[in-house]
Write a structure and sequence with these properties.
By secondary structure, the protein is an all-alpha fold. Helices cover about 70% and strands about 0% of the residues.
């Protein structure tokens, strides 16, 4: 998946819950709204300059991976993706977003994954992920 899409998922980790609002009771809906408000307040604390730099770096990463995969340099692309995944995990803005979304992610249906799991290229190849788009 493209990094921009993954960032959007970081900001809205409970979309699976919102898809079936009729299935929620009043108490569940109130709890959901409270968690969303807490998450929004937390996200407002994320350093905007750091996020802008992160988004720029992500666009560069996308372009580089697209190029490497198109050239058939799958091993090099995978190696760069693994390094980038570690870079993301160490990024303070990403760590803050992850922290903000933890409670919301815990409300997601079983089988849904957090956005950070999308950056784990140990179980799949980055070129296969990018080809799906």
């Amino acid at each position: 998946m493209k990094i921009a899409v993954l960032l959007a998922m970081a900001l809205l980790p409970t979309m699976a819950i919102a898809q079936a609002p009729g299935m929620m009771g009043q108490a569940e809906m109130e709890n959901y709204m409270q968690v969303m408000q807490e998450m929004q307040a937390c996200m407002e604390k994320v350093d905007r300059a750091e996020m802008a730099a992160f988004e720029k770096r992500s666009e560069e990463f996308d372009a580089e991976i697209d190029r490497l995969c198109a050239e058939g340099k799958r091993d090099e692309a995978q190696k760069k993706a693994m390094a980038y995944g570690k870079e993301l995990a160490d990024n303070p803005a990403v760590q803050q977003m992850k922290k903000c979304s933890e409670k919301a992610v815990s409300m997601m249906p079983k089988g849904e994954q957090s956005f950070m799991e999308d950056f784990d290229f140990t179980s799949h190849h980055v070129c296969d992920e990018f080809e799906e788009e």
